[in-house]
Amino acid sequence: MASLILVLGDQLSHNLSSLAAADKAVDRILMCEVADETTYVRHHKKKIAFIFSAMRHFAETLRAVGWHVDYVKLGDAGNTGSFTGEVRRAVQRIKPAELIVTEPGEWRLRQILAEWEETMALPVTILADTRYLCSHAEFASWAGGRKQYRMEYFYRDMRRKTGLLMAGSEPIGGKWNFDSENRKPPPSGLTLPQPLRFAPDVISRDVLALVADKFEDHFGYLEPFWYATTAEQAEQAFEHFVVSALPRFGDFQDAMLEDEKFLYHAVISTYLNAGLLDPLKLCQRVDFAYQAGHVPINAAEGFIRQIIGWREFVRGIYWQKMPDYAGLNFFENTRDLPDFYWTGDTEMACMRAAISQTREEAYAHHIQRLMVTGNFALLAGIDPHQVHDWYLSVYADAYEWVELPNTLGMSQFADGGVLGSKPYAASGNYINKMSNHCKTCRYDVKQKTGEKACPFNPLYWDFLVRNAEKLRGNPRMAQMYRTWDRMAPDRQAEYRHSAAEILNTL
Length: 506
Ligand code: FAD
Ligand code: DLZ
Ligand code: SF4
Prior knowledge:
By secondary structure, this protein is mainly alpha-helical. 50% of the residues lie in helices and 5% in strands. The chain folds into three domains: 3-127, 3-Layer(aba) Sandwich (Rossmann fold); 136-193 and 245-321, Serine Threonine Protein Phosphatase 5, Tetratricopeptide repeat (Alpha Horseshoe); 340-505, DNA Cyclobutane Dipyrimidine Photolyase, subunit A, domain 3 (Orthogonal Bundle). It has helices at 17-20, 35-39, 45-64, 83-94, 107-119, 136-143, 151-162, 202-214, 231-244, 246-249, 269-274, 279-291, 297-321, 340-343, 349-361, 366-380, 384-394, 400-411, 428-434, 456-466, 468-471, 478-486, 489-505; strands spanning 3-6, 28-32, 68-72, 98-102, 124-127, 166-167, 170-171. The strands form two sheets. Strands 3-2-1-4-5 form a five-stranded parallel sheet, sandwiched between helices. Strands 6-7 form a two-stranded antiparallel sheet.
């Protein structure tokens, strides 16, 4: 008897464990576009279009190598709109002996699968997702009894495990981490590469029409749609990055420029998280580029650290800490997310740039997410769960396993320091140093208080004072509190007054 293999929208990889456990000759694959997945948060239009198109292309490539695929489109008659409904229908249709699925990336779906183990009238086998470098058991053993997790030590173990940029047991270049070389401000007159763009084919055009029709009221612009939607295209896009942008990726990793959305970033997270790219292969390619003398060590190490370090680390934390992690709110923040996060209608030039490009491309690079939109929400005391919902819906690469620890942990410090040792809070000075946004802003980054002052400036001090009880004891914050304590009471009052005026307008 056949087994039924459920392949999810972010499992578009031929080396998937569920496929390895199946037999092409007899087993049936089920892939389904379901309304529930499009609305558990109201995803950006481009994200839905990307996933549906990539799913449809993947189904074609499976069929081309001999798999029997049952593919349910969103508009198909009888589509129940949920995975549970579609699996039930497939079970009735196919009468399989067993259901096999690679574990999903999100806790929410893992719970639904656990229910199926009780309620489906057939055995349900859930396999580990072997596309990641670090298994849950390996992370749990690394995490041990630690209260705080630090990426750096985890990353070193991943370097040793993979042999990437290693000379025997030593890191190539004599140190593990070249991050201190990767904070250069953007010089003027840079000639910037662009990500490789693809014209939508017939499959994508069908999907674009569907999304335009069914998801008109979702955030963001649907077109122009230029994403890769197959593994082959995603690999081309990555190769283009390696040649055109990787050499300077490290140098300008933290830089931001008005009207430049991608700088030297890879713009591959959407492909990688959906399964179109393999993380280890990407890193091996970058290691090779370094060994061949095509890219400097700070670029190669910086890139590899993001993938085998940060990406695996946040996934480990997610599965180690869920479900409680999603409910954390260390600062007990309750303010609603301001409307301008959805409209981009703000006079803060840095925020406008980050939000506008998010609407256009479903993409913003790391420093925009962390030090602009994330930083503002942190300083303004926005409810971290609303911030989490925003990030999960607006970015094409967003799945909860990677988005939640980045948002709740790294950006909002809502986990109280599990993931990072101090909040990523900064005044306008940081944004001014790393970008050219302030030059065209209605606010003056040099003014600390008053009507023209950059809002990040008074909000920064207000954030520290509001949360002094929770942060004063943190050795990495001590210097800032000493500066505040030395300030004249009148000056302190001015800061707090300016901050209150800004918060009142939100
Ligand atoms: P590059 O800068 O070129 O980096 C290369 C790759 O490294 C990325 O494609 C990504 O796979 C990986 N990477 C880099 N930083 C991280 C990180 N902190 N965590 C995990 N992987 C990383 N990344 C997501 O993939 N999905 C998300 O939903 C997501 N949400 C985020 C929310 C916030 C608040 C913050 C601060 C960061 C978030 N990130 C998320 C991490 C990071 O911003 C994106 O991975 C990156 O911007 C993707 O663009 P890129 O491919 O051009 O990356
Ligand atoms: C994000 C997403 C969307 C929008 N739609 C679908 C879908 O219709 N069918 C599907 O199989 N997967 C979809 N996905 C991806 C899932 O939400 C993802 O597999 C889970 O969140 C687990 O990471
Ligand atoms: Fe952003 Fe402040 Fe600079 Fe304006 S002045 S761009 S608000 S940091």
